[in-house]
Specification:
globular; 10 helices; alpha/beta; Rossmann fold; 7-stranded mixed beta sheet
């Protein structure tokens, strides 16, 4: 079972986004997410592990049909207050999504895979319900900031201690084991945690900088199934009669009826 955030965890998680440094990091992460996913208007998107709804709130102005799912009722309560009735919210686990195959065009796991018990199963489920593309945003185990966070969590109890961090190589291995050699692309962001402002944002969004394997967050885009265009062919079916009708039968019957009528008139 995935780690379920309790009431205290949900409040502290939501407060985290209000700090200036964290808000800046979140803006970089969501910008990377949109650039890699490129969602088309009026399409359906599922946010798996939606938490308190911050990612969904960011997407409200992008003309998408949004759905969120999370195992924590406390997270969902905060999300409902933010999103009102603009988003469909469900309680459930990433490893067992209550949706049919190809129910959405896109599925995202934004800093939620870290808290699942079976990451491979969660990715498999995301690829099952999304027919076009899946985006995974995870904390990088080789990022200097995440390394310091992990050390801090040994001394100060926090939700980060429950998180399982990933590397780019580990994510690729999981996905190739599940899906085979499907199209995958990756980038990272938040390379320079102590540099902010316009200059810092400009540097962070450079393509060459985002190909560094040491960014704080890894963004990975997956195309679950290659798409092929097929042209339907018309089928010509010849059916053979089960029996061969006797020739002249209808004429003979009519002749008999006609002759019988003549006989009666006489």
């Amino acid at each position: 079972m995935s780690y379920i955030f309790n009431f205290k965890d949900a409040l502290s998680y939501d407060e985290w986004f209000k700090k200036a440094n964290n808000k800046y990091a979140f803006e970089l992460e969501t910008k990377l997410f949109l650039n890699m996913l490129c969602p088309a208007p009026n399409q359906r998107l599922l946010d798996i592990g939606c938490g308190t709804g911050n990612s969904l709130k960011y997407l409200l102005d992008h003309n998408l049909q949004l759905t969120g799912i999370d195992p924590s009722p406390y997270m969902l309560d905060i999300a409902r207050k933010k999103l009102k009735n603009k988003v469909d919210l469900y309680r459930g686990f990433a490893e067992d999504l209550p949706f049919d195959d190809n129910s959405f065009e896109y599925a995202t796991l934004m800093t939620s895979l870290e808290f699942t018990q079976m990451p491979a199963k969660a990715i498999e489920e995301a690829c099952r319900v999304a027919k076009d593309k899946v985006f995974i945003g995870v904390l990088n185990k080789y990022a200097p900031m995440n390394f310091m966070r992990k050390i801090k969590s040994f001394f100060i109890s926090n939700t980060f201690a429950k998180a399982r961090l990933f590397s780019i190589w580990e994510l690729k291995q999981i996905q190739f084991a599940i899906l085979g050699n499907v199209p995958i692309s990756w980038r990272t962001t938040y390379q320079f945690p102590f540099v902010r402002g316009k200059i810092g944002c400009y540097i962070e969004n450079l393509f060459l900088i985002q190909k560094s394997p040491f960014g704080t967050m890894i963004g990975m885009s997956i195309t679950p199934v290659p798409k092929f265009k097929t042209k339907p062919l018309s089928l010509r079916i010849k059916t053979k009669p089960r029996y061969k009708p006797a020739t002249g039968l209808a004429i003979n019957v009519d002749t008999i009826i006609k002759n019988s009528n003549i006989t009666k008139d006489k």
